[in-house]
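Long-time lurker, first post. I've been practising inverse folding by hand and with some scripts of my own, and I keep getting stuck on stretches where the structure tokens seem ambiguous. Below is the full token string for one chain I'm working on. Before anyone asks, I'm not after the true native sequence, just a reasonable design that respects the backbone. If someone could post their per-position residues I'd love to compare against what I wrote down in my notebook.
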């Protein structure tokens, strides 16, 4: 089973510029000068430019292709893609109107910050503008030259269960990383409707958009999310368990409240909560074990039976229901990833 690295998480906040507006070329140039920005980075150059050991804060300019947007209470954003890099999610308090419903290149001035090397990068938007309205002020930075690793070099291990929204319908074995979100979402929606034919096309698409958007944002393989939802609710947004678990990801009231989910039967809010929760569990148990497969097993056990029971029994609790739950999801996940 393949696990890929956690993506860069970009957080766009509207405190420096109104989300609906773009800045003028002159204002953009002044901001670049103010923050001593001397180059324009592409998405595929970002990690090499910052280096794996980067901590602290700095200002950069980033250029990327916006391929989609998503929005829910307290969580909105756009997705950026590049043919030679994994997609990254760009969070925003509100998505700029000129980036909604279109695919276009944009330039961002961002504040990059990371407290510890094990944390994802956090980037705060200061300004954004369409590329066509903002000619390059300086030539783009050249592609970084990778330095050869030495035997004494320290390797930074990233958290497991990687990002992605690979094609569920494909069994050709080919990689589908570069598919734009606009093409991937209908594939997921079609798959979802085969599992729950009672869903309308609109609702299936809404679920697919949430799975793709939030899985990229939180760095969890979308196929894992699909596997969990299949077992938890069968893609029924209004599913309710005898114990009171709610919605697609079967969030318990206390868990939902702790995640900031106000309406667990709202598709976007439920997906936001469950994927954020699963990301935290994966990070927690990978930090404890250093083993991605074991972290996945413990995360699923905790999702089902609670972290207290995992701690009490020192692993997967001896509950038949929980053991079957973990086994079933891992088997489904393996089926969805066996062609990659």
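-- Answer (accepted) --
I ran through it position by position. Result:
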């Amino acid at each position: 089973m393949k696990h890929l690295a956690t993506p860069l998480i970009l957080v766009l906040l509207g405190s420096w510029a109104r989300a609906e507006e773009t800045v003028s070329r002159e204002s953009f140039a002044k901001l670049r000068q103010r923050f001593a920005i001397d180059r324009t980075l592409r998405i595929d150059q970002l990690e090499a430019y910052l280096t794996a050991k980067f901590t602290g804060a700095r200002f950069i300019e980033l250029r990327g292709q916006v391929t989609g947007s998503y929005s829910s209470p307290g969580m909105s954003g756009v997705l950026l893609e590049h043919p030679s890099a994994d997609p990254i999610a760009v969070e925003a308090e509100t998505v700029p109107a000129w980036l909604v419903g279109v695919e276009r290149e944009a330039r961002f001035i961002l504040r990059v910050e990371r407290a510890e090397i094990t944390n994802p990068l956090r980037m705060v938007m200061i300004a954004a503008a369409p590329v066509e309205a903002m000619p390059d002020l300086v030539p783009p930075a050249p592609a970084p030259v990778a330095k050869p690793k030495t035997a004494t070099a320290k390797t930074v291990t990233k958290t497991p269960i990687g990002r992605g929204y690979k094609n569920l319908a494909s069994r050709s074995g080919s990689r589908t990383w570069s598919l734009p979100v606009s093409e991937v979402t209908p594939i997921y929606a079609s798959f979802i409707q085969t599992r729950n034919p009672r869903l309308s096309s609109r609702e299936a698409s809404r679920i697919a958009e949430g799975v793709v958007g939030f899985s990229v944002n939180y760095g969890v393989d979308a196929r894992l999310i699909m596997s969990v939802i299949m077992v938890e609710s069968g893609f029924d947004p209004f599913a309710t368990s005898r114990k009171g678990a709610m919605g697609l990801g079967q969030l318990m009231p206390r868990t939902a409240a702790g995640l900031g989910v106000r309406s667990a039967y709202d598709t976007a809010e439920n997906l936001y909560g469950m994927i954020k929760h699963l990301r935290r569990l994966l990070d927690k148990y990978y930090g404890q074990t250093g083993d991605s497969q074991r972290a996945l097993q413990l995360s699923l056990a905790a999702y089902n039976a609670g972290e207290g029971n995992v701690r009490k029994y020192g692993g997967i609790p001896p509950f038949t229901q929980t053991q079957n739950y973990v086994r079933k999801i891992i088997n489904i996940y393996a089926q969805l990833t066996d062609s990659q």
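A couple of notes from the structure itself: The chain is about 35% helix and 15% strand. The first strand starts at residue 9 and ends at 12. Happy to go over any region you disagree with.
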